[in-house]
UniProtKB/TrEMBL annotation:
Residues 41-119 form the DUF7344 domain. This is DUF7344 domain-containing protein. It comes from Halopenitus persicus. Pfam families: DUF7344. It comes from the Archaea.
Amino acid sequence: MASQSPSSILSALRSSIRSALGLSLSAGGEGGDRLTQDDVYDILSNKRRRYAIHYLKQVDERVDVRDLAEQVAAWENDKPVEALTSQERKRVYISLYQGHLSSMDDRGLVDYDETRGTVALRDAVRDADVYLEVVDPRDIPWGQFYLGLSAANALLIGLAWLDVGLFAEVGDLPVALVVLATFAVSATVQTLRDGRIRLGDEGPPPELRSA
């Protein structure tokens, strides 16, 4: 399986969570279920927490922490649950039990019952669509690409508006068509090569899938 570097995952994460996500999370639920995009970014910046949410969205019910830890450990070690060693299981279980789940519960992402050793997603997260963009290390995230494209087109429009050099003869309409064409072509290519995968979709977490 192809894995992505932490920096590419974090960069892609910020540019790939849909704008509707923030509205959905901050508007969903009451009290502890109210979330902000900063909460989501912070929680999902950790691989183990991402894996946990991915699994919880897949099963969509309250689960035993040990079952959660086993699946997270299996993804981390790229092996079936049955092939895990006791040390691999224990390492992930302790990490989730003593730290990650409590932090996620405090932020309102999960309902963690430490006494019973069970955990479930809260409605705000269960009903939200969180996308991760799988980025090849040799590529740049689409968010950064569009930022650069916008800057280049802004420069192009500025030169045309000031009638600099050849732009004085070309006119505004051809420049506008070029700008529209660059965005249209880019959007088409992105659609064809879209590597975004939703947390909770069937299969392993997004960054473990081939780009």
